[in-house]
Amino acid sequence: MSIASNIQRIKSTLPPGVTLVAISKFHPAEMIREAYAGGQRVFGESKAQELAAKYEELPKDIEWHFIGHLQTNKIKYIASFIHTIQSIDSLKLLQEVDKQAARFNRNIDVLLQIHIAEEETKFGLSMQECEELLQSEVFASLEHITVCGIMGMATNTDNEQQIRKEFHTLYTFFTELKKKYFPDNRVFTQLSMGMSQDYRIAIEEGSTMVRIGSLIFGERTY
């Protein structure tokens, strides 16, 4: 199967209003070009310098999403062009994104990453930390970021019941945040959850954005 046909097959399973983010990290630019030729425009990367190099090489109407753990000193490589940073896991990181966006006189969309998995290796804010961030004076002072929603990763397990429960927890939290902090906000609409192995469950549990790599590009070569 070609990359373009993989994309079409996945898109045919997505309900209206669910965005496909093609996870292209560690894949070469020519494979991204193939996906682009197949109509895909939203791509996800997890290394700032790799992404900056790809940005230079590839069409400028690509909507780039950063999906990995982001160090504050790496934001400068992507701040001039990044569309969305899905992995905001601290107020310090958010402040630096705001500062770098201001340098380029632009606004960067962000998602707050929430830790829902039963794995210590995954990054993210606890639900309490997320609320503390949203209530802080520092957050209120930021002018160059837009919080568009939240993101989370389920535990890497074959237990579908557990995955569903974690996604349901995230969806419930998303609706609570919207009601409490963004009641009249038409931008706080994104719930990014679901990857190649569990995206169908995520959609059933309310996901608006799925992050799919191996089903499009095949297994990654590191």
Describe this structure in words.
By secondary structure, the chain is an alpha/beta fold. It has one domain: Alanine racemase (TIM Barrel, Alpha-Beta Barrel). Helices cover about 40% and strands about 20% of the residues. The chain contains nine helices and eight strands. An eight-stranded parallel sheet has the order 7-6-5-4-3-2-1-8. It is globular.
Give a short synopsis of this structure.
It contains nine helices and eight strands.
Topology, please?
Blueprint: H1 3-11, E1 19-23, H2 29-37, E2 42-45, H3 48-57, E3 63-66, E4 84-88, H4 91-103, E5 108-114, H5 127-135, H6 137-141, E6 145-152, H7 160-181, E7 190-192, H8 199-204, E8 209-212, H9 214-217
Parallel strand pairs: 1-2, 1-8, 2-3, 3-4, 4-5, 5-6, 6-7
CATH-scheme architecture: Alpha-Beta Barrel
- State the low-pLDDT regions, or none: none
Instruction: Tell me the number of structural domains.
Output: 1
Question: Which structural class matches the secondary elements?
Answer: alpha/beta
Helix and strand element order: HEHEHEEHEHHEHEHEH
Shape field: globular
Number of helices: 9
Strand order of the largest sheet: 7-6-5-4-3-2-1-8
CATH class: Alpha Beta
pLDDT average, as an integer? Answer: 95
In the CATH hierarchy, the third-tier topology is known as TIM Barrel
Largest sheet: 8 strands, parallel
**Gyration radius, in Å:** 17 Å
Beta content comes to: 15-25%
**Terminal residue distance:** 22 Å
User: CATH superfamily, please?
Assistant: Alanine racemase
Number of strands: 8
Helix fraction by DSSP (H/I, runs of at least 4)? 25-40%
